[in-house]
């Protein structure tokens, strides 16, 4: 496949790009500076683009088989709502104009349920620095769920995502936060990327949210 990847320079975006390339796909990585440091591959091209602009999304997506979004602002330093919700709106509008229907996008863990009607972010002890991001991710999910044009999938990670090995061994769930026997919820960037690309290739969860954790 020819995949357009927004947010290719972040930790998750880079992991997704590397996973896509390892499976033989061609990747166009979109960043605000047009650079993904240290990632050089004959099937990878880095370009400049703004995921919050529908016209840019439409122009760049044309000719691609699918679009992946790993757009995520720097927590505490950027406007979470403007970037996350803005990107969701632009992707919905722009991909419709481009005639590209398949979208897989990263999502936050904050909107996952821990009990019926109770989300992770509803906990009064939810970290303040992550609240705006989690609320914006939840709003973006709502926009995708109301979209009739896209075959989207929203991929939420575990409560904690970070550096680690690519094991290929993890669980895939739905709207509920996945935890292990000790109550921990973790996933590595690499294994999250495996689950993300699995879904992009297989399309088992079209128009719904999935979650990934060990």
TrEMBL record:
It comes from the Bacteria. Coiled coil: none annotated. InterPro entries: NAD(P)-bd_dom, NAD(P)-bd_dom_sf, Polyketide_Oxido-like. Gene3D superfamilies: NAD(P)-binding Rossmann-like Domain (3.40.50.720). One of its GO terms (molecular function) is oxidoreductase activity, acting on the CH-NH group of donors, NAD or NADP as acceptor. This is Epimerase.
